[in-house]
Amino acid sequence: MTGICVFGAGAIGGYIAARLALKGDCEVSAVARGAHLEAIRNKGLTLKQGGETHTVKIAAASDARELGPQDFVILTLKAGAIAAAIPAITPLLGPKTAILFGQNGFPWWYFHCHGGPLEGRQLASVDPGSAIWKGLGPERAIGAVIWQAAELEAPGIVAHKYGDRMPIAEPSGERTARVTRLSELLTAAGIKSPVKSGLRDEAWLKLWGNLSFNPVSVLTLGTLEELATDDGTRRVIATMMSESRAVGQAIGVKFAMEIAQRMDIAAKVGAHKTSMLQDVEAGRSTELDAILGAVIELAQITGIETPALKMVYDLVKF
User: Fold this and answer.
1) Separation CA 54–CA 310 (nearest Å)
2) 20: pLDDT confidence band, cut at 50, 70 and 90?
3) What single DSSP character describes residue 67?
4) N or C: which end of the chain has fewer CB within 10 A?
5) How far apart are CA 135 and CA 51, in angstroms?
6) Of residues 192, 206, 273, 310, which has the active-site annotation?
7) Is 270 helix (H, G, I), strand (E, B) or coil?
8) Global pTM?
């Protein structure tokens, strides 16, 4: 049976682990810590979704050495936490283990098998010192765009809020046996995970919203709906989107919608606080560099001026 370990089984990771375990088509385990780990061990992992509550028993540990090599690792740590976690992830890796990267922001593996002039380029904003590139290797990477939201309601209890799509892909765009198998398992578990050849474009579609709405929400404390409908914040966000679209297009990204359409998508989410605002309010580190810093770094590489992006970045960084 296919072995899948979710490393960092918090809100999104816990949701994925629970869905996979409910289906029962693979052997699911999780690396977690603290009270959340103890709750999973003692009571199981509970998922609340669509008015239903399910509890599953899965193997869980704080030390990956207890779980051993897997066929797949689903890595749901924040982008800035991956490099430090490499020694802890390594015991899960066999010669053919693939890692699904489920982070917000610009993917660290983006230019692996990109085929453009930046082929093999590594960005300091998302992978300082190329630690991930060297420590885990882009050849293990499977990309994902996570459109779901979930919250850790209490230790061992995950509440799904919205979304069921998580397209995945090889950086090369090939439909390999491993990405096909993972797509089948996730889709059967109720997570819509088609293999998508144009995943970079979809990653930018999400990034486009995150790099503008998330930082502005930190400065204003506004919800997505408020930011998308207020004339002043809407102008700022539109300017940020315009600058970042120019950067994306410079590296070959095709944007499937206009700025107003992307803002309207955010507005429809409603009175929701962005993950970055939630992190700031909770005193946690943010994904600012992976979400906005990476695009500013790309702008410098491609020679594109992004004054609005830089201004907002500097304010949020402070």
Assistant:
1) 45
2) very high
3) T
4) C
5) 42
6) 206
7) coil
8) 0.95
